[in-house]
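# nightly structure sweep
# worker-07 picked up a monomer target from the shared queue
# config: single-sequence mode, recycle default, output format = C-alpha cells
# input follows
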Amino acid sequence: MTDKHKSCCEHSDKNASENSIIKNLNNVYTCPMHPDIIRNAPGACPICGMALELKHISRVITPNDELIDMSKRFWLSVILSIPILLLTMGMHIPGINSLIHYVPAHMSSWIQCILATIVTICCGWPLLKRGWFSIVDRHLNMFTLIALGTSIAYLYSVIALLFPEYFPSTFHMQNGEVNLYFEAASVITALVLMGQVLELKGRERTGGALRALLDLSPKMARRIQGDKENEILLDEVQVNDYLKVRPGEKIPVDGEIMEGYSSVDESMVTGESIPVEKYVGSKVIGGTLNVSGSFIMHAERVGSETMLAQIVQLVSEAQRSKAPIQRLADLISGYFVPAVLIIAIITFFAWFFYGPNPAFTYGLISAIAVLIIACPCALGLATPMSIMVGMGRGAQAGILIKNAESLERFEKVNILVIDKTGTLTLGKPTVKNIIPILDFNDEQILSFAASLENNSEHPLAGAIVKAATERNIQLQKITDFSAEIGKGVTGIIDGKKIALGNKQLIESFKISVNSLEEKAEKLRQLGETVMYVVIENQLVGLISVSDTIKESTESALKALRDEGIQIVMVTGDNRITANAVAQKLGIDKVESEILPQKKSEIVKKLKAKGYVVAMAGDGVNDAPALAEADIGIAMGTGADVAMQSAGITLIKGDLIGIVRARHLSKNVMKNIRENLFLAFIYNVICIPLAAGVLYPWTGILLNPMIGALAMSLSSISVIGNSLRLRYIRIAN
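# output follows
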C-alpha cells in the first residue's frame, strides 16, 4: 500500500449528526391513507382512525405496539365471546344443549352482559374511542360505523335486560324477556379486532422491499490503518477510510477501488443480474456483493449519504405521495360514511313501519348490519397500498420514482424523447481521428484542444482530455475561457486565440471549413462527432469523437416500440451523425443540431399536439426538458440536477430500465383498479344485502356478525392483492 492509502481522516462529528437525524426520522409517524398527518408518537389518524405507522423504514424491526395491543385484545375477546355464543346458540348444538338447559335464563342473560361488557368496552375500547373522536372531530370514518353498530347492540341489550317492562309486549319472548344482542356486540368487536390485527400485519409487509434493501448493508467492515486491519461496526466507518473487501463479502459503503480487481454483483441495486467488472478507479456501491477478487476501497459516502440509504429515503417519501386516481377514492370516501348512516336510518324505519313482526327487531338487526358491513377503509387503502408496494418493487429493480403521479402517468406515455449522449450511448466517448492541416501535427492539435476542454464539463471534453493524458501530452495554461452552449469553447493560449467546436461555432467567426468538410462528412456518416480546431482565425484541423451505443439500447427501443411508444432522438450533433446513429437503432424521428434550450421547446410542442411525453436524458442541459415533460426520466449515471428534475431515475442508466418502469406502472395501475373494484363491488353488493333486500324472496336476514367478518376481510383482500406486486415480473 502507498502512504496515501495508509492515511486516515481525522475524526468528525458528521456520522453522529447523521445518526441523530436518522434516529429522529425513525420516530416520525404518519397515516398510509393521509400522508399529511405527521406525529412524533404512535396513535390513530384523526381523519380515518387508522393506526399511524413509521414514516421511514428502519432496518431494525422494532416491536409494533399497536399490533401487540390489538392482538391481546383480540384473543381475550375471542375467549370471552365463545361462552356468550354457547349460551345464545348452544341449544342448537348436540351435546351443548343439555348443559345450557341447566343454566337459568335470567342467569344466562347476566353472564352474557358481564362478558359482553368486558369484550365490547374493555377489548373494544380503541374502536369505541376512535369512533367517538371521529364524531367529535367531524371526520366520520369506518370506526364511526363500528362504534355505532356495537354500541347500539350493546346498549339496547343492557336496557332490555334491566328494564324489560318498558318494552312493548311484542318485544317480549315466550319467557317474558326481551331479545338480547350481547353476542352480536361481542362477536362483532372480536371480528373487527381480528381484521385490525390482520391489516396491521399486512401493512408491515408492504415495507418489506425497502427493508430488504436496508438489510443489504453488512453490519461490519474491515478498516485499514497503517499496517493493521481491524474489523469495525459499519456505523464507525468514516469518509476517507480505507476498507478491505474480500470475495463473497458485501461492500460496506460507497467508494472507489484503489487496489485490486474484482467483479461485483449489483443486481440488488440496479436490477441487472450480470456481475460488473471493477478495477482501480471504478466506483462501487455499498450493499452490493463482491463476487470474486479482493480489493481495497476508499470510502467516499457513508451513513445516510450512501446510494442505498438515499434510495430508501427517496422511495419512502414517494410512497406517501398521492396518485391522481386517489382523488376519486378520497371524494367518494368523503360522502361514504354519511351516506351509510342515512341508509341505516332508512333501513330501520322501513322495517319498523313496513316489515313483518317483530318489525323493531328486524329493523335493528338490519340497521346494525348496514353500519358494520360498510367499509370505507377498503376504499381508502386501495391506492396507497399498491403505491407503497409498487415503489418498493421498483427500487429493487433499480427504478426510483419521485412521486405517485409519475408512476400513474407513465402507463399513458405514447412518445419518448430521448437524448443521445449518455442515454442511448455509454456517455464515455473516445477520440477516433485527429486530422491536422497546414504545418500542424496530431499532438499539437490535441494539445490545444485538450487544454481548452480541460475547463469544460461536456462529455466530449473528457474524451479529448483523456486522449491527451494517455499520450502524455502536457496541457497548456489557458485564459479568457468561454463556452458557447451547444457549439464549443474558446480561450487564449500563449497569447493566441483558440477555438474548438462544431461547424456553427467556426462559421460564426466567418471562417470557412471547406478544406476539411469532405473528410468531416465521411466521419459523420460513421456516426462520429466532428469538432474543428481554429488558431488565430485559421482552421488547423479537426478531431472526431465517437460514443459507443449501450449494449441493451437496441432491444430496449424495440420493446418500447412494441408497447406502442414512438421514439424521437434529440441531439446537438449534426444531421448526418445523428441520422447514422438513428439508422443503427431503427429510430425514425430525429431532431439534430438542437441547442440545449431548444430541447424543452420540442417537448412543449409535442405536448401541445396531444402526446403524453416522456423525456430521457442524463446531462445538466437536459434538466429543463426533463422538467417540461409529462414524465422526466434521468439516468442514474448522469448529473444530479437531471435526477432532481426527473420524475423517474434509472440507477443503472440503462434504457431497459425504461421498459421496466413502463411495465411497473402498468402493473401498479392495474392493481389499483382491481383494488378499487374490490372495494366498490363489495359495498355495492353487501350494503343492500345487509339492509335485507333479499328477505322478501328468501326470508333470510344478514347477521351483523357475518357483516363484521365481511367488513374485516374486505380491507384484508385489498392489502393482500397489493402485496402481489412484490413478485411481479416487470421486464425480461
